[in-house]
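Quick question about two entries, pasted in order.
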Amino acid sequence: MDKPTQQKPQIKHRLRLSRAAWHRISGKIDPSRSIAGYKTRLLYSSAASVNSVLAKMQSVAHAEALANAKVPPPIFLLGFWRSGTTFLHELFCCDTQFGFPSTYACMNSAHFLLTEQGFHKRRGKQEAYRPMDNMQYSWTSPQEDEFALLCMGAPSPYEALLVPSLMSDPQVLVDLRQRSVEEQDRWQRTIQLFLGELTVQQSKPMALKSPTHGFRFPLLPSLFPGSRFVIIQRNPYEVFASNVKLWTTLLEMYSLESFSTEQIDKFVLSAYLIHEEAIAEGTRKIPPENVARVKYEDLVADPLTEMRRLYSELKLRGFENAQPALQQYIASVAGHQRNRLALSPAQKNSVDEMWGAMIRDKGYGWPDNWLTLKPPA
């Protein structure tokens, strides 16, 4: 067993969980690894009770609209963590024919229908930078719906953000089909509820981006008939290095257990293989005209051309109407500087051993421009 890094009990960033979500997740904390002090548990428990009351108020206030809401088939943007899904999501959300879950809605799923409009009027557009890649975002920015599903009590791979010991069994953590029937049903009810709420709010088909949906790709076409899918891929060496940084950053923010770098490395290596198997399986289950692929490297090099191609392949209308907004957004991020990351020789050897065949099949090699190999220890 990997020896976790010892950390003292501390106040962490808190996700806005429902009472049921907190009850389930807190019960999974390994006492031998716990760094959740009394104050953290009390704050989570108290906030969870408030969130559940607010969720009930939201449900009652919009009961008729939710009962009548017809969710249009979404567009799912699929790709492993750090494959470029955020950039792709931002591009699709330039098109006003699509709706999207905002950061506010995803982080305040219990009450966003009641409070989001007033919040934005009071606070305006306050921007910040994501700690893992320095990309700019705000409360109005498109966000991963997975955070909302987690907070609403659905089974989620993001349970590991609070309980990283769950990463020791990646298949159970990321593959919904490995969960109980009750958990699978709860996940379906939760995503349908959240999409219903977004439909009540925006009355548009949603552009959804959560890397976790890639693991569920085989299930999505039957749950959301007529949906379209875009699959993005990136050099796996970069994906691994960036995932190590991502998970380290998020666990330092949210984890209620101690964790180790080795734990993260092993999880990322295994989860990527599971993800790629799910993508291959899902692709076989849908009509070819409902799925398109793009490489991150091509999207960054010429985003407008790649978006035009994706619209064409998916038979989406309205590209010309969206083009001015796309051009404006592309110009606004033109100066973004990608992180240059580094891997140890041991990490590179692990990637080569587990992903080597896949890297060659995808046509990638070591990315000298973006990755550094650390000198041997």
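Here is the second entry:
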Amino acid sequence: MLSPLLEMSETASGTVKFKARTNVGLFGESMVFDDRIDAGRKLAKRLEAYAKRKDVIVLGIPRGGVPVAFEVAKAMEAPLDVFLSRKLGVPGQEELAFGAVASGDVRVLDRQIIEAVGVSERQIEQTTQAVKKELERREHLFRGSRPPLNVEGRTALLVDDGIATGSSMRAAINALRQMKPARIVVAVPVAPVSTCNRLRPEVDELVCLHMPESFFAIGQFYADFSQVPDEDVAGLLQHGAEPAATQTRAAEKGASGPSLDRPAVE
């Protein structure tokens, strides 16, 4: 049986040759995306209905989701921002979330989980403060002095480079909902079909390009899944924020249409 990592060809003289495939992952799964830029461009084509709409904001989940979101925002001609959120893990069982926090002092608590596992109020506050401190550090690192975009009443495209179990994305969705967007659209290049089925009822729309039955890790579907440096994230966000600034300057000069100026932090 021919290995999925090998490709067979036959020359005119009948000689059989083998060569390594460059478009397959470690487990024989065909690569779908060259890198995050390629994934973002392909994802943008599926989101064409949101292009050039004044109510649309693209939110990238750092770090890997920001390069994907940048390509989506560029194609949509929409402003780009980072969405910083972290789940609150049960002490000793950190993968089990009892809530989430996000930029802007947003906190969501799952009282059912808290009561079921016996998380104390002291543990809730200690965990919340530790996570908020890390969020504030990353927010300053990625945004600098720029305040976040206001998502209230707008269509938020929440973008990542992929979803595995969905626990972190669910925490992000719950936190984003507290900011009162008109619609939440989760958009990712790849996620297991089972995860998509669980998350779809929690958002207004879920767009996923590739939903494999067999799934080991997000990176297996990328030829290049190298880590995204913090400075690259900051640079993309600064460049991606330019559509909002352009809209603001136009509005100040009397141009028609709503402004996408960044509001003061509440």
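Reply: Confidence is low (pLDDT under 50) at residues 1-9, 18-28, 244-266. The radius of gyration is 21 Å. Hope that helps.
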